[in-house]
Amino acid sequence: MNSSRRNFIQNSVMGTAGLGLGIASTTEVSASTLPEAVAPETTVDVDVLVVGGGTAGTIAAIQAGRAGVSVLLMERNSQLGGTMTTGGVAFPGLFDAWGKQIIAGIGWELVKECVALDEGQLPDFAKVPQRHWQNQVYINQFLYAILAEEKCTAAGVEIAYYEFPQAVTKIGDGWQVDCVGFGTRRRVRCKQVVDCTGGAEVVGLLGLPRLSEQERQPGSFLFMLGEAHEPGRNQIHRLYVHGADSTNSRTATVANLTGRKAILNKVRQEQKRLMHLQPETGFRESYRIEGETLITVQDYTSGRLFDDAICYAFYPVDLHTKSGVKPQALKPGTVPTIPLRALVPKGSRDLLVAGRCVSSDRLANSGLRVQASCMGMGQAAGGTAALAAKLGTTPLEVPLRQIHELLRSHDAIIPGDA
Ligand SMILES: Cc1cc2nc3c(=O)[nH]c(=O)nc-3n(C[C@H](O)[C@H](O)[C@H](O)COP(=O)(O)OP(=O)(O)OC[C@H]3O[C@@H](n4cnc5c(N)ncnc54)[C@H](O)[C@@H]3O)c2cc1C
Fold first, then answer.
1. How far is the CA of 36 from the centre of ligand 1 (A)?
2. Can you give the residue ranges of every domain in the chain?
3. Cα 269 to Cα 288: distance, rounded to the nearest angstrom
4. 152 with 61: CB under 8 angstroms?
5. pLDDT at 230
6. Whose CA is nearest to atom 3 of ligand 1?
7. Which residue, by CA, sits nearest to atom 39 of ligand 1?
8. Does the reported pTM lie above 0.85?
9. What pLDDT does residue 32 have?
10. pLDDT interval class at 14 (50, 70, 90)
11. Which residue has the higher pLDDT, 8 or 298?
């Protein structure tokens, strides 16, 4: 497909409503639900419950499913991908450092397939880019969300949209997690929980310690404006929403209302058409866990190889403030690592996190939170939870060698391997 055709399709998808087009065709499928699906209450038993089907959680669930355990993936929104899809930050990075791929595995498989199906292009990782963002991968957010569902289904993962945990109780060697959705009350009994909610919401429900800053980094609403009758411009704009706080539904509502109001003002002032708007603010920062270890910015910038490292990470230190962002590049050759203990809430059993809530100080987190690292953490957490469920133990008691073997067999790159 040539690039003008690709742009045309992209703009058509993005801008159909804005252009006021009629419905060009109708196709049909049938969604069949089992009779018991309409009952308002349900109880399920699974080995692993992954909460949050975003960047990290999707990969965690697929890995756990592929490792042969039963998995429920719970997502409070209506699609997978989280910040990558609902937030619209559809440029995952960084999978490479200093001319070499450093993060692969299930996340990379999904990204590669998404780019191939969209007839896009992957960066050449053999080339060290001038600017870090040049090796981010541009993906089609809509396709990514659908491919993620396909891979979950193929791995035997059950998906529960529109639901979230309300109460989490330790029972014996596992958990009872009481969840709600509209028209649904679900009791989940499981052996392991993986919290991939971005802000460690399950950890918060359990009353375990979390770290946060008084002033959070701004969130961003992504949108696109175009000239009337000139839909060819596909420059994404970013509106910084200072004070955006995803702590709860009330604070997130304020961020969304504030962002949309400002965008409406812009449309009126600039007299341009609103061609595209993500459904919600992308939140950069809320809570991080206090884990069995905490990754400091010194650990991060020195490329410390932790003895229980489960994946690499790579990105400049990238703190957004009211005066913008000035990324601080890592020194040549430096590749930070993420230890398993940073995914384990301090003093907990049968519980892991993955994603931007990883136990880390604020500056280390500003680099660790990017999507490729979240995917690497997700795969490691999903694999570890699956092994812990199979062995009837807790994540930190699973032999590290076994975790590494499982991850390698699913194409992940383990720090220290040649
Ligand atoms: C504006 C912006 C720009 C960025 N730019 C880049 C970039 O250029 N490149 C890059 O690689 N990274 C970038 N990042 C960082 C990166 O996108 C995020 O840090 C990362 O995607 C976070 O992944 P996650 O899995 O931790 O959380 P998310 O992807 O946000 O997923 C969390 C999921 O959990 C769900 N959830 C939350 N609470 C609950 C609950 N209680 N129950 C059920 N589900 C729940 C959410 O709906 C969501 O789907 C950016 C982030 C933002 C916000």
1. 33
2. 39-212+285-409, 218-283
3. 39
4. yes
5. 56
6. 89
7. 197
8. yes
9. 86
10. very low
11. 298
